[in-house]
Amino acid sequence: MKRNLGDHLGIGADVLKDGHDLLRARIRYRPPQQRRWYFSPLEYHYNPDRWFGDIILDRLGRWQFSVEAWPDHWGTWTTDLKKRIEAGQDVEPELLEGAALLFRAAHHVQGPARVQLKDAAQRLGKSARPLKERIQLALCESLEKLMQEPLAPEDLTRSDGVFEVIVDRPRAVFGAWYEMFPRSQAPKPGVPGTFSDAARRLPELAELGFDVVYLPPIHPIGHTHRKGRNNARVAEADAPGSPWAIGSQEGGHTAVHPELGNLDDFAEFVATAQRLGMEVALDYALQCSPDHPWAREHPEWFFIRPDGSIRYAENPPKKYEDIYPLNFWCVDHMQLWNACRDVLLFWIERGVRIFRVDNPHTKPLAFWKWVIAEIQCEHPDVIFLSEAFTRPKRMQALAMLGFNQSYTYFTWKNSPWEIKEYLTELTQTEMVEYFRPNFFTNTPDILHAYLQEGGRAAFRVRLLLAATLSPSYGVYSGFELCENTPLHEGSEEYLNSEKYEIRWRDWNAPGNLKAEIQRLNRLRREQPALQRLANLSFHPSENEQVLWYQKSAPEGDLFIAVNLDPRHSQETIVVVPLLALALSVDQPYEVEDLLTGERYTWRGARNYVRLDPAERVGHVFRFIPAQTGRPS
Questions:
Q1: For residue 627, is pLDDT > 80?
Q2: Could you say which of 168, 211, 387, 516 is catalytic?
Q3: Euclidean distance between CA atoms 356 and 377, whole angstroms
Q4: Confidence of residue 151 (pLDDT cuts 50, 70, 90)
Q5: Rounded to whole angstroms, what are the CA distances from 37 to 27, 32, 63, 158, 596?
Q6: CA quadruple 372, 375, 377, 383: dihedral positive or negative?
Q7: Which domains does the chain have, with CATH numbers?
Q8: Which residues of 490-499 are buried (b: 16+ CB within 10 A; e: fewer)?
Q9: Is 433 marked active-site?
């Protein structure tokens, strides 16, 4: 389970016991880095026949909790005592039983409580004392408070196992990501960019409203079997190679490519981002080029062929001869695991608190469970984003093991029914407890046919969907320029992919989406409804090409209409949930489009919307009751 810092974790439990005893229950919990256990009461609710309580998660890290219950012997006894008194029965035997309960409880406590319980037991058990006085003592509130705990350790039952909840900082939930290759940030074509060049772009990205700048691998790139343009197996003489072929004579995972600068230059890049209110995320790719120092120093960490050579990566018939996969179950695997952990610690010491993890589903789940816990034990503010485009259950398992965020299938969900079905799964099922999506519109590996064929309007549609459906979303460089040329028909690879060459771009080219990105990111920061995940609901639209959905928040709900057809105008009747908005059937009200500031007067549940993608692809409405002028 995952929660935000400051959240209340609501806990419910079914507590059952034979017989008619009253029961008590509580939450037993332990904050991160503490040995002591704390307790918070659970209260019984009659109609659902269930116990409920909560704890305030006021510290980052892994919290532990369980549920404890016990028979409330004293409460059961006092309840029966009252019934006997009302029925006029002789209660002398019951008072002696009550005294025995008090003596039993006193045996298991220390200090003033023990003295008070023994004294009460002696007074209650003395038949010579006035009956009225003894009854008043038995039913007094102070005695009830002393008897709320289990009377003896053997009375206590604890739920099986200990549950964990990971408490993260807000950036694990909400943020706008921008992916860029530092080597492509030079001010003029033909030369590789540096960290200093990349730093000069940061003010613009901050102005556009991005929170996280994600860098693909910044390490030295191997020369052996280096890939050429468009993934050619034979590289040109000046080919820069793929950044994911990590390691050369200049170093491995704790070094930076000399053409980018040095570690001091990287530190200045991180500091510049922080001054602008942004964070730097680094790629964590656990693979090596044949030239990586580990290949020389620790060949036993790799897969060894019968002829003694190290096996390169393959996905038959594809061959990745520039990459050696690591053998995470080699004989000396703990030394390898420690080395991989130390890579993270190295960059954490240099100010990095976010890691985008490359292909985690190709490494053991046991390793991720171990290394994430190891890191977050000492650095609970570190965020891990899982880039696992794999089967659903494996993606979910990685999230359950501790990944704070996950890439998703959003890129491939473009039809109305796909979007509704997928978003319902992410926001309305148990996945919401542990799986935090990050909706990247595109990546260096993925240029979907929707963007290839839909032109500029398709980019605008996907931007609006990503930014309003998920609290975390991201774009890869070139999205703002609507780059959409594939390697070939049917391919999701970019032509002249930046993975294999240095790209130069005119960031102010006509038709760019910078103004729309800025407007949406500003709106996301202003509207709490766009900063939550589980507050999404879809409402009827008579034209399925116009998606109509609501994002709810106490500070104000938003209603969003999006034309999913990037080529044609679409019109529809959208249905407004009047009852939820406390609007009457005949009551006029205004809706304001927060993207443009335009206002429209609506009446009743059924209202007309028309969206021409050449002009606008969607609306983000807030509702304003006409008689008050206040947001609903």
A1: no
A2: 387
A3: 19
A4: confident
A5: 10, 11, 11, 13, 53
A6: negative
A7: 2-72+157-167 (2.60.40.10), 73-147 (1.20.58.80), 536-625 (2.60.40.1180)
A8: eebbbeebbb
A9: no
Q: Which residues does residue 606 pair with via DSSP β-bridges, in sequence order?
A: 575
Q: Tell me if the bond preceding 71 is cis, omega within 30° of 0.
A: no
Told to judge if 358 belongs to the known catalytic residues of this protein, a careful annotator would answer yes
Both tokens of 601, joined, read 């007067």
Quote the tokens at residue 209.
């409203």
Question: How far, in whole angstroms, is CA 215 from its chain's centroid?
Answer: 20
H/E stretch holding 428 reads helix 416-428
* DSSP line for 520-583: HHHHHHH-GGGG-STTEEE--BSSTTEEEEEE--TT--EEEEEE--SSS-EEEEEEP-TTTTT-
> Residue 163, class by beta-carbon neighbours within 10 Å (0-12 exposed, 13-18 middle, 19+ buried)?
middle
Burial class (CB in 10 A: 0-12, 13-18, 19+), 307: exposed
- Count the helices and strands in the chain (H runs, E runs): 14, 28
Q: Per residue in 235-287, pLDDT tens? A: 999 999 999 999 999 999 999 999 999 999 999 999 999 999 999 999 999 99
For residue 60, what pLDDT is reported? 97
Query: Comparing C-alpha atoms, which of 168, 60, 161, 180 is closest to residue 403?
Result: 168
Amino acid at 311: R
Distance CA 438, CA 314 (A): 28
Partners of residue 601 on adjacent β-strands: 590
In this predicted model, what pLDDT tens digit does every residue of 340-370 receive, in sequence order? Answer: 999 999 999 999 999 999 999 999 999 999 9
Question: Which ranges of 126-165 would DSSP assign to H, the alpha helix?
Answer: 131-138, 141-146
Task: Report how far Cα 177 is from the mean position of its chain's Cα atoms.
Answer: 14
Looking at 211, 283, 358, 516, which residue is catalytic? Answer: 358
Kindly report, residue by residue over 75-96, the tens digit of the pLDDT. Answer: 999 999 999 999 999 999 999 9
Integer Cα distance of 307 and 326 in angstroms? 18
Model confidence at 629: pLDDT above 70: no
Edge-first strand listing for the sheet containing 618-625: 536-538, 546-551, 558-563, 618-625, 588-593, 599-603
pLDDT in tens, 389-423: 999 999 999 999 999 999 999 999 999 999 999 99
Q: What is the reported pLDDT for 591?
A: 96
First to last CA, the chain: 32
Query: What pTM value is reported for the model?
Result: 0.93
